[in-house]
Description:
Elements: E1 9-14, E2 26-31, E3 37-42, H1 50-58, E4 66-70, H2 79-97, E5 104-108, H3 117-132, H4 139-145, E6 154-159, E7 164-170, E8 183-188, H5 194-207, E9 223-228, H6 238-258, E10 266-274, H7 277-288, H8 291-298, H9 304-311, E11 324-327, E12 330-334, E13 337-338, E14 351-357, E15 363-370, H10 374-381
Parallel strand pairs: 4-5, 8-9, 10-14
Antiparallel strand pairs: 1-2, 2-4, 3-9, 6-7, 7-8, 10-15, 11-12, 11-14, 12-13
Helix pairs in contact: 1-2, 2-3, 5-6, 7-9
Amino acid sequence: xxxxxxxGFEAAGVAAGLKSTGKPDVAVVVNRGPRKVGAAxxxxxxxxxxxxxxxxxxxxxxxxxxxxxxxxxxxxxxxxFGFQTTHQTAEKAAELLGVxxxxxxxxxxxxxxxxxxxxxxxVLAGTEQxxxxxxxxxxxxxxxxxxxxxxxxxxxxxxxxxxxxxxxAKGAGMLAPGLATxxxxxxxxxxxxPLQADEALRRATGKTFDRxxxxxxxxxxDQVTLLANGASExxxxxxxxxxxxxxxxxxxxxxxxxxxxxxxxxxTIEVRQAVSEQDAVEVGRSVARNNLFKAAIFGNxxxxxxxxxxxxxxxxxxxxxxxxxxxxxxxxxxxxxxxxPREEVDLTPRATHVVIDLKSGEAAATVLTNxxxxxxVHENSAYAS
Length: 385
């Protein structure tokens, strides 16, 4: 049920003709509860899509009644016409729901530059149709409607003592931080104040979605939204809520990683004994974005030299000649030199675990990525068609 698992939420997903396949492509999530608390985080890309520009303004007062999402077109770099489309979508939803347009967030995903008059007409019609089909059982339909190159819908639910969090996500390519290429809607029936929701969301995304770096490409449309309606009448301990929210975000992030375009390996890069968490993240990300390393993993080659070459490009504090590297449990490098034979490393499983010990401090961080495959290149070369 994903976003409709918590009490007081309705959702729907419909086919409006945005996708050539005829599959669902417009989703709506509505808060029917007593509180209308909303928080959101957005891509840090300076090139932002029209829905991002709108939603950043709309969420500023931390009041959100509904979220309208479409796949089949990013409505990015479509000029003032595209922003008017976003505005009209919010107004259409607001009119039908009896709320303010400024309390409706808009999300789009798909090909950049898509957003002509046909796109507008279909988004508006799909919004109307989805609102007519809203139900407390519509979470799964909504999760399917936001898919693009995803092969599966991505949902998660966590229940605690008297309250629940539910979420849906899309994303399979351009997975790189600020955020990963994703649309995510998270709902909860817990009682939260606006600032509490905002802080919890930022803490959770900073440790989960922002640590997913599949291909080093940052999107223009990324948005993660949290809606809290207080329908459970339970105000959880804030640390308990933050921990549950992070758990749900991590579950969704792992599902995004597992469905990354063309990937044959899911790579976990664990950096230990860094001077700071920032250093650990920088080191992990340098490996996650290194095409030579990613190509080696695709070929089942435990090429630890490419790991050291990658981390040497960072500004992190460590001695490159005192670094240990493990691959799937085998220490292949110690103190910047060879250790166990490469033949001992089995990289045939999809799950790949790389440990980098910097021996410089007490901080640690984990970054998620994927290998670089023929299928990834093919899928992204053919995406526009």
